[in-house]
């Protein structure tokens, strides 16, 4: 039984599959099938009577997708198993376990076949596995924090990477020249090339490790932003050194051209991303009638931006990140709730699968036939990587702290240096190097470095964070007060900056916001979807969550995006919406009236005419939501529905929730309907409001209607 | 200072300002040239019109209140001293300052004073309480015209409710401080004054 299973497994790892490639040209399908023994095979190779076959197995027909699916299945099951395994996730990061699974599978394959298992092909990695991860990262990037720290991030990404590359390359070269390890003939350029690929911090590895350690957002964005943006530098340097290797001689002009190329690559990626982001935003504007495919546009345009910039030899990562960041706010405003959820879920799912696959393949590909090992080289590379990174971070931070508003502390610096994990990007790049005598050594060293950083650094970073008492992540959502007051502070600071004549962060942020609101939003967002202020959005979000019975404190520390997915609203049919509106407005009117009796100053105003109240109700309806075409019908329906005594919702006046035990003059005003339609619907599900306590809901409807009307008048 | 015809800053003035606000010499001179460029009337003091001439400030939602904050109670002119005193609130808090002797009084850019400055932006009538109306006014200015009154009212109520501990439906200064205790006010309310 096991033999058959293993043979089946071997079939799956047939080198002719699209996902993986070995160094040798893959043998043709036909020959290979002949080599396999006694498993169900393609028909026609057996000498069987030509009777009509009732049952047959035709594996080759489905071989390629079958194998791909099985690999993905393996990856996903490994991930499942990981999360079910009790205490292990707390100690060992997921990436480590996945690599170990990969090692296991690779070992099995090697043991059975006695040849090297398939290796992760660079093409598959760069074209299929990497984009979803980077897109996911870009889409959920905390925009404001990123731009506030952009200077520092760029500083680390560009200068830090350059420093590391040159440092590692040159020192390795020097050491090899002196060391007598048999590596003297390897040229400086080769070492620089090696340095360029090994110095780069990998976003995949950083993401997977930092996701579990929950450091404060600023630190997270610094490390993560650096890992994303250093792609431009890495790409340029790698290609530069590679082309230098091919050229007979290198002159100073070439180096200069390389420097210019860096700017071109970075800015090019940026522009491509911007272009596609804006086009995507514009396209989603028109998806109202075909909402189901709206998420597809997001993915298509992002992937297109990545491919386009790869085609033009720009930085694909920068393009896709820019695209995601650009289109996010417009897409979110344009598409429906469901589509938003779909986008988020799919992104998370794809990036998760990709990440798992990458790590498993890393493990599998480690089992190689021809490793070239050299103790001194490997250990010195490892040591130099750590050393140069630490030095680089120290020096750069010392400079950048003078220009920052709040300094990067030493603990943060340590985490930045320690969190510079290498990952699959280095791995793929090292395979792409043109063959030269010591290539095997480079491959081995790269693998060792990756494994070391992921295992040792990945596993120890969490205890270190706790040991060093690094500032951790705050709660998920701020309170409304914080948001309001922080907004006040933002405006205040902008104003002061204007007075002082200083073009600081607030100035540019304001300018961009102004431009955004005036031009971009008008152009890219549907007419009926008004852009809302962030204060209102936060308030609505908090309302929604509270109605769902969650509190915003003490939640599991998952990303806000995932939590949103849990609490997304259902979309309702129009008839339902109308009846809900009707019911709510009636009942709100009722409970608002309940307050009235408590305050003497409102009893005077019971003389108002019915018309005034009707008008008030209509106006109230207009504030209810986006579609207010049926206000007239609502007005008339009120009298019919008036007798619906049951007060359904605690409605949206959360502010009067259990905390305040007594009524107050000020609270009447907020008895009114607040919050948008969306929140309204959630309110239906929740238990009835506490206001019902001791209050009669249906008596004296008339005067209450009027005083409510007066409320409205007064409020204007 | 008002009696001087020329607009030069005297050394002793600089020293006094330095002691009071904590700015460095070069910062004071730089800010003085800014003060001077704003002072179109050349009378050594700024009026409200001078501030309103700053274009970005005019479109700032809280522009009027910010301008107001520069002027002491009931006055229409602010001299350089007052200008610097207000700006001192926005100096970044440096670590070495925390060790200065407490007898010198709280520096203008302490967390408390920063928060008091922000508090005063709400509290126009200076009764040391932010009432619902005052909050509503500021909210209306910040949030724009898309939001209905009812919605705004409920946001205001929630804001008060989150802060209010003694149930008077107003936010006192201590409640204000408490609500913002998790926010890094020292960092948020600081401007990098170039040396």
UniProtKB/TrEMBL annotation, chain B:
Residues 26-61, 110-145, 151-186 form the EF-hand domain. It comes from the Eukaryota. GO terms for biological process: protein transport. Keywords: Calcium, Cell membrane, Cytoplasm, Lipoprotein, Membrane, Metal-binding, Myristate, Nucleus, Phosphoprotein, Protein transport, Repeat, Transport. SUPFAM superfamilies: EF-hand. Coiled coil: none annotated. One of its GO terms (cellular component) is cytoplasm. GO terms for molecular function: calcium ion binding. It is found in: Cell membrane; Cytoplasm; Nucleus. CDD domains: EFh. Belongs to the calcineurin regulatory subunit family. CHP subfamily. PANTHER family: EG:114D9.1 PROTEIN-RELATED. This is EF-hand domain-containing protein. The lineage of its organism: Eukaryota, Metazoa, Chordata, Craniata, Vertebrata.
């Amino acid at each position: 039984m096991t033999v058959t299973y293993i043979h089946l497994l071997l079939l799956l790892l047939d080198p002719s599959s699209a996902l993986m490639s070995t160094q040798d040209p893959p043998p043709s399908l036909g020959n290979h099938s002949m080599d396999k023994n006694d498993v169900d095979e393609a028909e026609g190779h057996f000498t069987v009577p030509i009777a009509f076959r009732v049952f047959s197995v035709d594996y080759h027909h489905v071989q390629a997708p079958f194998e791909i699916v099985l690999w993905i299945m393996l990856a996903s099951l490994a991930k499942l198993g990981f999360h079910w395994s009790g205490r292990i996730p707390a100690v060992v990061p997921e990436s480590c376990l996945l690599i170990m699974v990969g090692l296991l599978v690779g070992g099995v394959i090697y043991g059975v076949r006695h040849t090297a298992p398939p290796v992760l092909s660079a093409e598959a990695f760069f074209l299929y596995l990497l984009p979803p991860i980077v897109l996911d990262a870009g889409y959920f990037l905390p925009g404001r924090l990123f731009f506030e720290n952009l200077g520092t991030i760029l500083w680390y990404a560009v200068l830090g990477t350059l420093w590391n590359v040159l440092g590692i390359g040159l020192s390795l070269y020097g050491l090899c020249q002196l060391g007598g390890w048999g590596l003297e003939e390897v040229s400086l350029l080769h070492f620089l090339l090696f340095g360029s690929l090994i110095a780069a911090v990998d976003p995949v590895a950083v993401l997977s490790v930092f996701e579990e350690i929950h450091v404060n957002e600023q630190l997270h964005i610094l490390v993560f932003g650096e890992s994303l943006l250093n792609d431009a530098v890495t790409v340029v340097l790698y290609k530069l050194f590679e082309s230098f290797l091919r050229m007979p001689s290198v002159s100073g002009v070439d180096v200069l051209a390389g420097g210019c190329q860096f700017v071109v690559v970075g800015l090019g990626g940026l522009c491509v991303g911007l272009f596609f982001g804006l086009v995507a935003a514009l396209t989603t504007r028109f998806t109202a009638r075909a909402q189901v495919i709206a998420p597809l546009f997001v993915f298509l345009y992002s992937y297109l931006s990545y491919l386009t910039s790869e085609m033009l030899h720009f930085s694909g990562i920068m393009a896709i990140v820019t695209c995601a960041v650009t289109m996010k706010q417009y897409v979110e405003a344009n598409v429906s709730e469901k589509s938003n959820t779909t986008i988020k879920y799919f992104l998370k799912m794809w990036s998760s699968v990709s990440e798992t696959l990458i790590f498993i393949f890393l493990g599998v590909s480690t089992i190689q036939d021809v490793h070239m090992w050299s103790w001194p080289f490997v250990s010195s590379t490892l040591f130099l990587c750590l050393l140069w990174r630490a030095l680089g971070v120290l020096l750069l931070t010392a400079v950048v702290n003078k220009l920052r508003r709040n300094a990067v502390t030493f603990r943060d610096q340590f985490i930045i240096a320690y969190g510079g994990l290498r990952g699959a990007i280095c791995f793929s790049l090292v395979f792409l190097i043109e063959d030269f005598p010591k290539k095997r050594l480079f491959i081995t060293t790269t693998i060792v470095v990756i494994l070391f950083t992921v295992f040792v650094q990945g596993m120890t970073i969490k205890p270190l964070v706790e040991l060093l008492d690094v500032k951790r992540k705050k709660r998920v959502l701020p309170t409304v007060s914080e948001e309001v007051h922080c907004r006040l502070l933002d405006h205040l600071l902008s104003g002061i900056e204007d007075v002082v004549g200083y073009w600081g962060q607030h100035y540019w942020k304001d300018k961009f916001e102004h431009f955004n609101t005036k031009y971009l939003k008008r152009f890219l967002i549907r007419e009926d979807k008004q852009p809302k202020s962030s204060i209102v959005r936060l308030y609505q979000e908090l309302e929604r969550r509270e109605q769902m019975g969650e509190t915003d404190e003490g939640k599991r520390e998952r990303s806000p995006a995932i939590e949103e997915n849990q609490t997304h609203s259902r979309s309702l049919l129009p008839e339902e919406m109308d009846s809900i509106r009707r019911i709510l407005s009636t009942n709100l009117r009722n409970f608002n009236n309940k307050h009235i009796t408590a305050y003497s100053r409102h009893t005077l105003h019971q003389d108002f005419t019915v018309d005034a109240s009707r008008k008030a109700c209509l106006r109230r309806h207009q504030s209810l939501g986006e579609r207010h075409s049926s206000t007239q019908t609502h007005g008339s329906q009120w009298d019919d529905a008036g007798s619906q005594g049951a007060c359904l919702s605690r409605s949206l006046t959360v502010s009067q929730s259990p905390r305040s035990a007594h009524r107050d003059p000020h609270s009447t005003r907020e008895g009114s309907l607040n919050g948008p339609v969306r929140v309204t619907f959630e309110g239906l599900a929740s238990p009835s409001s506490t206001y019902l306590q001791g209050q009669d809901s249906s008596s004296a409807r008339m005067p209450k209607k009027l005083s409510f009307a007066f409320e409205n008048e007064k409020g204007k | 200072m008002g009696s001087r015809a020329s607009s030069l800053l005297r050394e002793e003035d600089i020293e006094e300002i330095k002691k009071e606000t904590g700015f460095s010499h070069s910062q004071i001179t730089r800010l003085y040239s800014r003060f001077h460029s704003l002072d179109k009337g050349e009378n050594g003091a700024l009026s409200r019109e001078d501030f309103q001439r700053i274009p970005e400030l005019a479109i700032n939602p809280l522009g009027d209140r910010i301008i107001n904050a520069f002027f002491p109670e009931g006055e229409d002119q602010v001299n350089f001293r007052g200008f610097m005193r207000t700006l001192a609130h926005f100096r970044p808090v440096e670590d070495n300052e925390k060790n200065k002797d407490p007898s010198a009084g709280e520096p203008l850019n302490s967390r408390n004073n920063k928060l008091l400055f922000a508090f005063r932006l709400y509290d126009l009538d200076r009764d040391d309480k932010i009432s619902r109306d005052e909050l509503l006014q500021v909210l209306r200015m910040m949030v724009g015209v898309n939001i209905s009154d009812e919605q705004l009212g409920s946001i205001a109520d929630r804001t008060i409710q989150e802060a209010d501990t003694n149930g008077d439906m107003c936010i006192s200064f201590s409640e204000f401080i408490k609500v913002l205790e998790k926010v890094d006010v020292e960092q948020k309310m600081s401007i990098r004054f170039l040396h």
